[in-house]
User: Fold these one by one.
Assistant:
Number 1:
Amino acid sequence: MIVDDEENIANGILSIIESNVDFPTSIHLAYDGQQAFDIAAAFKPDLVITDIRMHMMNGLDLVKNLKEKELCNNFIIISGYDKFTYAQTAIRFGVIGYLLKPIDKQELLSLIYNVYNSLPQTYSLIKDRILPDLEYFSVNLDEENYPTSLKKAILYIEKNYMNDISLQTLSDELLLHPCYISSLFGKFTENSFKSLLEYIRIKKAAELLLFEKDITVSEISYLVGYNNERRLYDAFQKRLNCTPGDFKNLYSTAQ
């Protein structure tokens, strides 16, 4: 998980990782410490790369809280301040790296590979989160014949579904007109942008309901991008003809 209240820096770190590591990754972005803590409760990252000075909760407090809750054990601190007391506190918390901005790409990648190589060999054998064989979950978002612009749009949604995103958000990100992006979804996926975003959110919520036993429905609604529990209920009723609780009760026994 990458945490920085400057979106361009968070996206820059994301780009470095995606362009240079040769192992599969699942990366979440957060733009303040509190949001990062909430996401980590469900995501349980192997590594958190966090800025040190942020509003809501600073990087050191985030590290301390995540360690106390046993949500992550590996941390890299990034900072624009060469301040000894920051580094001293980070070392006391067991942070594996303290990098100054602008970030040295090779130093960052070296730390990331150190974490990856330290993971248990059995890590790759962790049970896949396989959802029930329902028609609704059969949408394939990885079609090779999709245009590059559509692939980028879908990838952006998959990485940012927990945020308040819109066609205008995609337009700003991809530098394409919203109407053109909308036409891509309709032509190639037979879904609108809104229905595809809803699909990704419901699918992620279903995973959390079945495989994260200690998270409440209210917490899940926030984690997948709905600002209240009612919206998650309405989405499940509309698409799966059941409430989130009914879905969990019905299908968790089959896992």
Number 2:
Amino acid sequence: MSAVLSTAGLFVLTALAEIVGCYLPYLWLRKGASAWLLVPGLLSLMLFAWLLTLHPTASGRVYAAYGGVYVAAALAWLWLVDGVRPSLSDGIGVALCLAGTVVIMAGTRPG
């Protein structure tokens, strides 16, 4: 059970690093924020890439399973940061994505 929680926590941290790394350049390009935001944005994307390397399974499988967690984190970001409440269809979509994540990770085989 601790391995599952560890993997889930790592997925959440990875998703946050990716979202922050993409959101900061967005603020600069679309909202007129300082170009200096590109520096922490780049660092956040570097952290994202490094976090992906911490998973013990094959990278393609990790990317596929991580996708569901990213979708959930992105919609949480939409609500908490952008102030837009996700719709029922957003919630259903997240549930389907997370179900896919569970199926992929539960079926993981060594190698």
Number 3:
Amino acid sequence: MTLKVACIAALAATMSLAGSTAFAAASDYVFDPVNAEMKKGDDVTVAIRLTNRITGKPVTDVVIIRSRVDMAPDGMADMESQITPLPSNEPGVYAFKTDLPMAGHYQLSVAAKVQGEAETVIGKVAIKANK
């Protein structure tokens, strides 16, 4: 085998390996509510789960950089409540304390940094507060 042929073979092998490597994207993650319905009130705990769509596994060690809860689904985005992160014992679950002062539909918007992911993962989770 000549040096030129060996180099071409090595390059082809490297390219085939590079082509099989899958890089994650922010769209490979999804936030879902742990409980989509809860009772309205003060100091309500809202928990969401972050899952990798490709593997189906929970995503841990995420840094939440932005969170907001409001009544945007009911056309009242100005109806925003304070939101405070809470610790969670379940892998991939991120909990928040907030007020859901009236019955209706709420939206929890989250922006998170996933370890090893260059893009910010953004999610909007719908929840319903009942009387």
Number 4:
Amino acid sequence: MFGSQAIGRRVARVVAVGALATTMCAVMTAGSASAIVDGREATERYPFMAVIPESAPAQGVHDGVCGASLIDPRWVLTAAHCVRGDGLILEGTVRVGGDTRKSGGTVRAIERTVVHPGYANGDGTGPNRHDIALVRLDRPVTEEPVRIAERAGRPGTPTRILGFGTTVDTGLVFADRLRELDTRRGAAAECAPGYAAGNRLCTISRVPGAMACFGDSGGPQLQKGRAGRWELVGVTSGPGAPGVACSAGPGLYAAAPSYAEWIRKTLRHHA
């Protein structure tokens, strides 16, 4: 019903239906972003932050990673291109709640992935569409999930992005420790024409020369809720304009609130 794919405890080799937009497909498409360039080490704990180890050897990507957000004790939300792509190999695990990429937190096996049925990769010529997927863990975790915001804030609303991606525009050396960057929701006109349309958010760094990059794909964009707690508003999808370096920005995010009903139905269907 939802185009789901069961995954055992073995290494999971995922075959693409839409090719990733760059040779760095395991960590970022031309509508996807990775580790945060010119961000800073995390200043607080984010128990809902998750990491999905993966690689794409044919494209020269080894020891790669995508981000994700724990939204339920047994489910994480990530980008569709993080689990579906040519030559993409998932290690078959998810680490939840650690502030380092390869230690800490709780590790669970991937039981199943569910890609949004409308997902389409932009192939470098446009934005990814419906770039969102759910990953079911083999057992629940005790870390506290993040709440999905009821709606994205207006343009100008302060946000924050997280990731273990690369800290430079070139190269594929991923951050060992979790990094964050203060951002804001941008107006649609601040991304390329047609990019921040409908269920996609344009994101602008509040720090010059900084943005998500290779390996940050699938990770969270957060905004503060009324109670002052972080809420999930976006899922890292890619650059907000074609052919730009990560640090040049802007970034493009799938709007998590737009998919809340699909997420609820998927969790019920696979309960």
